[in-house]
Design a protein that fits this description.
It is built from four helices and 34 strands. The protein has 573 residues and is mainly β. Strands 6, 7, 10, 13, 15, 16, 17, 20, 21, 22 and 25 form an eleven-stranded antiparallel sheet that branches. A hairpin with a 2-residue loop joins strand 3 and strand 4. The radius of gyration is 49 Å and the shape is rod-shaped. The protein starts with 7 loop residues before the first helix and ends with a strand.
Length: 573
C-alpha cells in the first residue's frame, strides 16, 4: 500500500479534470506528439511496511552438521574429547655377545726329583712364572638413545666367568696329582657376585687351592648377576665397551708324584670364558622421548555464514583443556614432562601454532588442566589458547578450517634404580578440549540478515532521495553493537549510499533503545528499492569481558518505521 502525507489520487483526478475542461480551447490542428506527457509528484514520508523478526543466535547457528561445536552450559563451544593412545615405552633388547679371549700358556720348570719306586713323593711347591694378562671386551651396541649412563646392569641369566688351568691328562693318568695353591687371578672388574673370593672393585680373585681333575683340568667358576660400572658406564653413540684384563697374576703349583716321567718344562695352559648375556635391568641416567601423540583434528568446516565470514575474528572465552595421562614408569620413580601444541590451519595454507607450558607426569597418573584451574588438576599456563581461532594476518580473514592437536615433547628423564629393559607400558589416558566461542579481547563477530520483498508497482515508480528508518533496538549482548543498513534493489545488488548515513550504535544489554537513521543516496535517486541488508558488527576490546556466545543472545529491532522521500513519476498517455 502506498501512502504519503498528501493524498495522491485526488490530486491526480483534479489535474485530469482541469485538463478535460481545457480541451475545448485546444486547436485540433496542432501536433501534440512532442509534448511531454509524464508527470512528477513530490513524495514525502511514503511509508514502507517492514517486518523483522528477532535475530537470535539459536536461529543462526545450526549444530546438526558440526560434531565439534556444541552447547555447553548454554554457551556455544568447540568441544572435542577422546582417548589418548601412545606408543609403547620400550628400551629395546640389549644382548651382549661372549668375548673372544686368547688363552695363556705357563711353562713351569720341573725340579729334579729323587729316584722313586712304587711310592709317592711331594712335588716341590713351585712358583708360577709371570705371564702377560689377556684382554677382554664386552660390547653393548645399538643401545637405545635414551640411555645416557649405566651405573650398573643386571642380567636375565647369570654371567658365567670361567678360568681353566690344564695340564696333559696323561700325567694324571699315571697316578700323579697336581694342585695349584694361593692363585691370584685377575677377573673382569665390577662383577656383582656373592663369591667371597672376589673383589668387585679390583676384579681380583684369590683362590687358596684347586686340584686338577682326571681330565687334566682345574676350573674356577664364578657366577655374576650383573656388573657395576660406576663412572665407566657413560654411553656414547649408543655404544658402551666394557673392557679389561684377565689372567693368572701369581700362584704356586704342587702335588704328589708317582711317575718321574714328567715333561720338563711342564706346560700349563689357561683358558678363559665369559658367557654371553642379556640385560634385564639397569641403574643409571635415562632421557626417554616418546613419540608425539596425534589427536584427530578438530574440523571447523560447515560453519554457518555468521561465523564463517572473512571478517569474523573470535577469541576464546575461558578455554580449557583437561588431560588425564598415565605414567607407565612411575613405579620406578621416573617422572615425565610434555607440552600440548595446537596448530590452526587457515585458508591459503597458513598455519599458526600455539604451544602450552610444560606439564608434569608424576606418580602413576596425572591430571592436568590448561588455562582454567580445576580442583584436583595441575594448572599449566597456555596463554595462546585464546588465539587459536585467529590468524593474526589481516589479509587472511575468517576462522581456521581445522585445528590439529598433539601432545609433544613427552620426555621421561632422571636417575633410576633397577629399571627394566624392554617394553614397559603406554602413557595412555584421555583428553577433553572445551573452547567457548566468546567475546574475549579483540573478538569481532559479524552477522548479516536481509529484509526484502518491498518492491511493488507503486514503489517502483518512486525515485528515492532519502530513506528514513526509525526503530526500537533491544539486545542482551554483553558488548556494544554497530548496525549498518544497506539498501538493495530487486536483483539483490547493494545501492550506494553516503558512507556514514547508514550506521548506528547500540549499547550493551539495552532495551527499546530508540534508533533513527537518514539514509541518503550517493549516486542520484534510488530506483527499484526492494529492501535493506542489516549487518551487525559485534566487537570489543575489554580485557575483562569473557562472556561466551550462547543460543539465547539476540539483537532485536521492533516497531520499525521506514519512510522514503523523493518523487513519483508516471506517464499519463
Amino acid at each position: 500500500m502506498l501512502r504519503t502525507n498528501k493524498p495522491l489520487i485526488p490530486n491526480m483526478l483534479l489535474l485530469a479534470a482541469t485538463c478535460a475542461s481545457m480541451s475545448s480551447c485546444v486547436d485540433n490542428d496542432y501536433d501534440l506528439k512532442n509534448i511531454d506527457k509524464t508527470s512528477q509528484f513530490t513524495v514525502n514520508n511514503l511509508t514502507v511496511p517492514v517486518n523483522l523478526s528477532e535475530i537470535k543466535l539459536e536461529n543462526v547457528i545450526k549444530l546438526d552438521d558440526n560434531e565439534n561445536i556444541s552447547v555447553i552450559d548454554n554457551h556455544y563451544a568447540i568441544s572435542k574429547g577422546g582417548d589418548i593412545e601412545t606408543s609403547e615405552f620400550d628400551l629395546g633388547h640389549i644382548h651382549v655377545a661372549a668375548p673372544t679371549i686368547n688363552p695363556s700358556v705357563i711353562s713351569v720348570n720341573v725340579p729334579e726329583l729323587p729316584p722313586i719306586s712304587g711310592i709317592e713323593i711331594p712335588f716341590p711347591e713351585t712358583k708360577l712364572p709371570d705371564v702377560p694378562l689377556q684382554t677382554y671386551d664386552l660390547e653393548l651396541v645399538n643401545v637405545d638413545e635414551s640411555l645416557k649412563k649405566l651405573n650398573d646392569i643386571k642380567t636375565e641369566r647369570p654371567i658365567e666367568v670361567e678360568v681353566t688351568l690344564s695340564v696333559p691328562s696323561s700325567i694324571i693318568a699315571k697316578g700323579n696329582t697336581i694342585t695349584f695353591k694361593n692363585i691370584q687371578i685377575q677377573l673382569p672388574w665390577g662383577l656383582m657376585t656373592e663369591d667371597a673370593g672376589y673383589n668387585s672393585t679390583t676384579g681380583k680373585y684369590v683362590l687358596n687351592e684347586i686340584s686338577v681333575n682326571a681330565d687334566g683340568k682345574a676350573t674356577l667358576k664364578v657366577e655374576a648377576y650383573g656388573i657395576k660400572l660406576g663412572e665407566r658406564g657413560k654411553i656414547e653413540d649408543q655404544k658402551l665397551n666394557i673392557s679389561g684384563d684377565i689372567g693368572i697374576e701369581s700362584g704356586y703349583i704342587t702335588g704328589m708324584i708317582r711317575d718321574l716321567s714328567l715333561p720338563n718344562p711342564l706346560v700349563v695352559s689357561v683358558d678363559y670364558k665369559v658367557s654371553e648375556f642379556d640385560l634385564a635391568s639397569f641403574s643409571g641416567d635415562i632421557d626417554y622421548k616418546m613419540d608425539e601423540i596425534d589427536i584427530a583434528p578438530i574440523s571447523l568446516s560447515g560453519l554457518p555464514d555468521f561465523l564463517d565470514s572473512p571478517e569474523t575474528e573470535i577469541r576464546i572465552a575461558n578455554p580449557q583443556i583437561l588431560i588425564s595421562i598415565n605414567n607407565p614408569v612411575g613405579q620406578y620413580g621416573l617422572t615425565g614432562t610434555g607440552n600440548i601444541n595446537l596448530t590452526s590451519h587457515f585458508k591459503g595454507g597458513k598455519d599458526v601454532e600455539h604451544t602450552s607450558g610444560e606439564f608434569n607426569i608424576s606418580g602413576s597418573h596425572s591430571d592436568i588442566a590448561f588455562c582454567t584451574s580445576k580442583e584436583g588438576y595441575e594448572l599449566v599456563d597456555f596463554s595462546g589458547l585464546r588465539d587459536i581461532l585467529t590468524s593474526g594476518d589481516k589479509e587472511i580473514g575468517g576462522l581456521p578450517e581445522s585445528i590439529s592437536v598433539n601432545i609433544q615433547n613427552i620426555t621421561f628423564a632422571g636417575t633410576v634404580e633397577n629399571f627394566p629393559i624392554g617394553k614397559i607400558g603406554k602413557a595412555d589416558g584421555s583428553y577433553n578440549f572445551v573452547a567457548p566461542l566468546g567475546f574475549a579481547k579483540d573478538s569481532k563477530v559479524i552477522y548479516e540478515t536481509t529484509v526484502d520483498g518491498w518492491g511493488s508497482d507503486t514503489l517502483d515508480d518512486v525515485n528515492i532521495n532519502k530513506i528514513h528508518l526509525k526503530a526500537n533496538c533491544s539486545t542482551n549482548l554483553p558488548v556494544g553493537v554497530e548496525l549498518r543498513v544497506q539498501p538493495i534493489d530487486k536483483n539483490g545488488n547493494e545501492i550506494p549510499v553516503k558512507e556514514n548515513s547508514s550506521r548506528f550504535s547500540v549499547d550493551p544489554k539495552c532495551t527499546n533503545s530508540p534508533v533513527e537513521l537518514l539514509i541518503e543516496s550517493a549516486n542520484g535517486p534510488i530506483n527499484n528499492l526492494d529492501g535493506v541488508k542489516f549487518k551487525a558488527f559485534v566487537s570489543q576490546d575489554n580485557e575483562n569481558n569473557t562472556e561466551a556466545l550462547g543460543p539465547d543472545l539476540f539483537i532485536k529491532l521492533d516497531n520499525i518505521r521506514v519512510t522514503v522521500d523523493g518523487y513519483y513519476e508516471t506517464d499519463f498517455e
